[in-house]
Amino acid sequence: MSSLRPTTEAPVPGGDDPAPHARRPATGRAVAVLVLVAAAAVIPLLGPSAVLDGTGEAAAPGVTGVALLRTLLFAALCVQLGEVFAARLTRRVPGAPPGDGPRSWSAYAPWAGFLASLGLASIVANGNLVPHALSDLDIAGLYGTRDGALALLEVNAFVVAALCARSRRPVTALAPLAAVVVGEALRTHPPAEHTAYLGSALTLVHLTCAALWVGGLLHVLRTLRRWRATAPEAGAALLGLYARVAAVLLAAITATGVCSTLRRMPVSTVLDQLVTTAYGRALLAKVILVAVVSVLALVARGRQRNGGLGRAYAPARAEVAVLGVVVAVSAVLTALPLPIRWS
What we know:
single chain, mainly alpha, 10 helices
């Protein structure tokens, strides 16, 4: 009779219990996300003081806050612009599962951009100083200055982009996002600068291509993860299509970056200023990171050709992680004093 009683046995440690094995990948991903979030916060927080050390240059007031806010602004721009771009690529993939894309982040990204641009506008409204009370802000004064008008343009553009993301045609968000890019390009090059409009044009192309590259890869990887089991062939085709477009984007980023650097650092002084100025040090760090990203991209494409989509996924994820660091370094770069143009 006793043999008919149900018995409950505790799982043997290290036995056939699948739960620990199932939890390991999820735990690893959570740790990786926390590390990336911490790095994204630490770089703009510590970056300005780190690159300014020993240069003899004085940082602008609130440079750390500006770098952090601009990191958030650039990230929001990349996410929404890249999602629209990657969705367009997805529609060109034969055999793509209809309606089987990842959850859209465009409903949240523009609000993050709105908060960042609002913070930056408040700094402009206080004479480019970090405000400590609402009474410090001169809101009406924003309309009377070029920097104030551009700050308000970006605030309003992100609000419109958020509304467009909720509409039936999310692609209409391209117009307000383009306004943000134009605002950033004009803000970076004031009229007093030599050939300011040329500098703005270079920044316009550079920032647009960078946002498409970073945000596009992020959304493509999220799509590949969803298609891994249901449509691996379509996933491989999507990654290949993105890789071809990304090569063109990288070429444009490199060309505009070199031209912008030579505008601010003549050829005879580049090597010196890359190590003796804060701007040069941050720029050098960005160049090294982009080189690492390029190597990871080549590894991912090579693995895809030789071993399929599965082997390309890991280096592609590393690629987008390093690109996130590039975004943070780029934000630090915009907050640093410009290099001295030696004659």
